[in-house]
Design brief:
Strand 1 (3-8) and strand 2 form a beta hairpin. The protein has a six-stranded antiparallel beta sheet with strand order 2-1-9-8-7-6. It has a two-stranded antiparallel ribbon with strand order 3-10. It is built from 14 helices and ten strands. It is globular. Helix 3 packs antiparallel against helix 4 (142-151). The chain is an alpha+beta fold. It has one domain. The protein has helices spanning 51-61, 105-108, 124-133, 142-151, 161-185, 195-207, 224-232, 234-237, 239-245, 253-263, 305-311, 328-344, 351-364, 369-382; strands spanning 3-8, 13-18, 66-68, 212-213, 247-248, 268-273, 276-283, 286-291, 298-301, 393-395.
């Protein structure tokens, strides 16, 4: 089957068939393709998949290197920031950087016994998320999970939960109405149960939400300074930021497809491979990979080999969760991986939070080879062992 590039331009549909050698997805995060071009795919050098290179080097080479000191050893307290009265980071913190996590004896006893794995939840938002993870995978609300992940980010302290869901619900209703109008007009077919028709209409409706890329990250190759700036601004990488600013990056764009698709009961899934991730529409009679980095057009292909070719991989090199649909639990693990990267950009002031979130990402998405590699490198570097029940970070001598 030929690869396809569906160009949905706010109301029109343009299909261009290409041979497998000619077809490529969008090549760089934020790079806008010229009119009528076939888009190339985006290598994500960031928290979801490409973080292995970025974070691993940063963690080892950072001048703010830290070592783990076991709790209870009677050493002098050298934590970097003052703690809250409870010792925990507050969800509604007014600080630019939240206090460092320091668990109580009672919370230590929970280590390894919660859905977060080695380190239990410490904030109200984390506790709510952990409670949701106790249920069945299909019961995990990814819209809520995305909010709870952002709730502890100080940059979102002025965005309330009600405001977040109001914005999301407004967009959801717009997508629903757009798809209904397409059905009424017979656009792209008359059978509402045809999977290809539903997929095309859904992608078209998402495009009509008019999201844009943050202009400063449209360059073909981002420098390390630009890369740090991308992840340091929570608006660039979290769904809450995408909803609030209507601008995002290749880190946040797939989340709107995933969350709205879930709420509309569409068969959409997050898929990972190498330094990239994308959305897959998957049901018994129809399977299509969707590239979400377009803001004017949507590129799709049914052939997974496109991603293998672009990553320079063979099928024998696939590991773990590469190229398969992620469970919702694994998606939450990827969200923790993204938040870990955000904490890591804070010049050594949030290394505790970064390590906690990396541990949770590893626990929730154990088959992701990139998460595994970063986890092993960072935890070995900091000397964090599996039997530890808390983290007390101090500057390395």
């Amino acid at each position: 089957m030929d690869h396809c590039c569906i160009g949905v331009e706010l109301g029109g549909l343009k299909r261009m068939s290409k041979s497998s050698k000619q077809f490529r997805m969008r090549s760089k995060c934020g790079t806008k393709a010229p009119e009528g071009a076939v888009w190339k795919r985006t290598p994500l050098i960031g928290p979801f998949l490409g973080l292995g290179g970025f974070l691993l080097v940063a963690a080892v080479a950072s001048i703010y290197a830290f070592a783990l000191a076991q709790q209870g050893g009677g050493h002098e307290d050298k934590t970097l920031l003052p703690k809250s009265p409870s010792g925990l980071a507050n969800s509604a913190s007014t600080e630019a950087i939240p206090p460092i996590h320091k668990v109580t004896a009672e919370e230590n006893a929970l280590s390894g016994k919660t859905e977060f794995g080695q380190f239990p939840p410490y904030t109200q938002a984390e506790r709510e998320l952990e409670k949701m993870l106790r249920g069945r995978d299909e019961g995990i609300d990814l819209a809520l999970a995305n909010w709870l992940m952002a709730a502890d980010i100080p940059q979102f302290r002025d965005l309330t939960r009600d405001a977040y869901f109001t914005q999301l619900d407004t967009m959801l209703e717009q997508v629903r109405q757009d798809m209904a109008r397409m059905q009424a007009s017979g656009w792209h077919g008359t059978n509402p149960n045809d999977p290809e028709t539903r997929c095309v209409r859904f992608c078209s409706a998402i495009i009509r939400l008019r999201f844009a890329y943050a202009e400063e990250f449209r360059e073909e190759n981002l420098t390390p300074v630009q890369m740090k700036a991308l992840y340091a601004d929570a608006n660039n990488i979290f769904l809450a930021g995408l909803l609030r600013t209507q601008q995002g990056s290749c880190v946040s764009m797939p989340l709107i497809y995933l969350v709205i698709g879930q709420r509309l009961d569409m068969p959409v899934h997050l898929v990972t491979i190498g330094k990239h991730y994308f959305i897959r529409w998957d049901e018994p009679t129809y399977r299509m990979n969707i590239e979400t980095t377009g803001v004017e057009k949507i590129a799709v292909t049914p052939d997974d080999s496109v991603y293998l070719d672009t990553e320079g991989m063979t099928r024998d090199q696939l590991r773990g969760s590469d190229l398969r649909n992620l469970t919702r639990r694994e998606v939450v693990g990827e969200l923790f991986f993204a938040r870990m990267s955000y904490w890591h950009t804070k010049d050594g002031k949030c290394e505790t939070q970064s390590c906690l979130d990396l541990s949770r990402a590893r626990h929730l998405a154990p088959d992701d080879p990139r998460i595994k590699a970063v986890y092993q490198a960072v935890f070995n570097h900091y000397g964090i062992k599996s039997e530890y029940t808390s983290i007390d970070i101090r500057p390395k001598e």
